[in-house]
Specification:
Elements (H helix, E strand, L loop, with lengths): L1 E8 L5 H14 L7 E6 L5 E7 L3 H8 L6 E8 L4 H15 L1
Antiparallel strand pairs: 1-3, 1-4, 2-3
Length: about 100
């Protein structure tokens, strides 16, 4: 399962705080980089999102919790909609409804 983990820095959080925490958690082995499928910042800084793959929501909490004093998280389970297949399925569903 893929998780969309949006973050926003808490008031007073500095870039140095985030950098230090990422390095600390990396060295502690708790970031689980093999599970992070994408890490994106929004232009301007201070917010962004991670895409994390895990079948266990508890594992998501374990990865994100060490950062909760620096950032707030908004986490959602997500799934891919392959465009071409999805459009075709929508056509079939609309046709069947008529």
């Amino acid at each position: 399962m893929l998780w969309y983990c949006r973050f926003r820095w808490n008031e007073g959080t500095r870039a140095e705080d985030v950098r230090r925490r990422v390095i600390e958690q990396h060295e502690a082995g708790t970031n689980n980089p093999e599970k992070i499928k994408g890490w994106y910042n929004l232009a301007g800084g201070g917010s962004g999102f991670l895409l994390i793959e895990s079948d266990d929501p508890n594992e998501i909490t374990e990865i994100l919790q060490p950062y909760m004093d620096l950032v707030s998280w908004d986490v959602h389970a997500i799934y891919e909609l392959p465009y071409t297949k999805t459009v075709e399925r929508f056509r079939q569903q609309l046709h069947a409804a008529v």
